[in-house]
């Protein structure tokens, strides 16, 4: 049988999300009716343009096309 946690991980996650995104995020967690536990986090997403020269990672042509559109 698993012991119940202290909730420290959930508290830390909430604190970090607030620090990083302010009010521009969603964090939901709770027990599922069918058993187990579910967590849903929604954060802003923005494509960035990092040069392959800076990252050392070559850009795949299909990825480059997706970023351009």
Short description:
This protein has 69 residues and is of the alpha+beta class.
Describe this structure in words.
This protein is an alpha+beta fold and about 70 residues long. The chain has a domain at about 1-45. Helices cover about 40% and strands about 15% of the residues. It has helices at about 10-20, 50-55, 60-69, and strands spanning about 25-30, 35-40. The protein has a two-stranded antiparallel ribbon. β1 and β2 (about 35-40) form a beta hairpin. The mean pLDDT is about 80.
Number of strands: 2
Helix and strand composition category: alpha+beta
Strand content: 15-25%
What is the general shape? elongated
Detail the poorly predicted runs: none
Quaternary form: single chain
Task: List the defining traits of the structure above.
69 residues, two-stranded antiparallel ribbon, 2 strands, elongated
């Amino acid at each position: 049988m698993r012991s119940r946690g202290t909730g420290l991980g959930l508290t830390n996650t909430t604190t970090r999300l607030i620090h990083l995104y302010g009010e521009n995020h969603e964090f939901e967690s709770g027990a599922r009716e069918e058993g187990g536990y579910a967590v849903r986090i929604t954060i802003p997403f923005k494509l960035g343009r990092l040069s392959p020269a800076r990252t050392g990672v070559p850009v795949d042509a299909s990825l480059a096309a997706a970023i351009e559109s």
